[in-house]
Amino acid sequence: MTWSRREFLKFAGIGTATLGVARSGSETVPDQVSLPEIALQLYSVRMFMEGNMQETLSRVADIGYRNVETAFWPNGVSHAHAARLLRDTGLTAIAAHVELPFGAERDILLRAADAYDCTRMVWHGWPEDERYGTLDGTLQLAELYHEAQEFAAQNGLVLHLHNHWWEFEPLPDGPLPYYVLLEQLSPEIQFELDTWWIRVAGQDPARVVGEFGNRASLLHIKDATVITNEGPMVAVGQGMQDFVAVAAAGAGHTKYMIVELDSCETDMFDAIADSYVYLIENQLARA
After folding, report:
1. Which residues pair with 201 in a beta bridge?
2. Fewer Cβ close by (within 10 Å): the C or N end of the chain?
3. SS3 track for 150-190
4. What are the E-state strand segments in 71-209?
5. What is the model's pTM?
6. pLDDT of residue 92
7. Element (H, E) at 207
């Protein structure tokens, strides 16, 4: 049977699935492992939400996405209002990008967690912190993250750390900052590994995902045809990333594959729809 994309989007999310055999090069995803779920990082559609949030979220839901990760809402939009729109469009926030919980940000974080009924609080990590440039600075950040997690844990929340490229570039004395954090941080602190920025840093995303194991339950899934930290991206599966290898490396640990396209060479909604189809059609994730 030949499916159109519209037909596939309609029926692909029905039921649950397990990993079957999906091939890319020499890699094969193992059988009998529960598939991670698909989510969309709403940063991908931030410009559309400036015009009409409800229409934008409805279009995301119509593609088939049920789960989203929040980023930054348009000016003047509260977490409570955003949460109502998510509920109205049938979307669930499985994680929220937030500032580190210090000072006034503590109350903001708690309001976000309460509004979305969500426990995964993700420090977005932007902009670059100069302390990542030295081992001593990275160890200072580890102490900061421990303090942030203590506050999160006291409120039933889990702190996740999201990377860009600089956390995977070697320090002057050799180690990669994120591996220093992996060793130094309490196991209660989780990582949200951004597979594209790992690639930009010159590392192998599948290897990193495998080495972080159960410390990295969230993955950002993004693709491009040229290694750059500035250029536009393409739909997942249409660039140079080997997501079958990534899925195999994270099997049993990855809870959510979160599609994120910072910018796109093509229509953004077509690209996030094609990304959704790719992940399901290749049995890498489920709706």
Report:
1. none
2. N
3. HHHHHCCCEEEEECCCHHHCCCCCCCCHHHHHHHHCCCCCE
4. 92-98, 120-123, 158-162, 190-194
5. 0.89
6. 98
7. helix 205-212
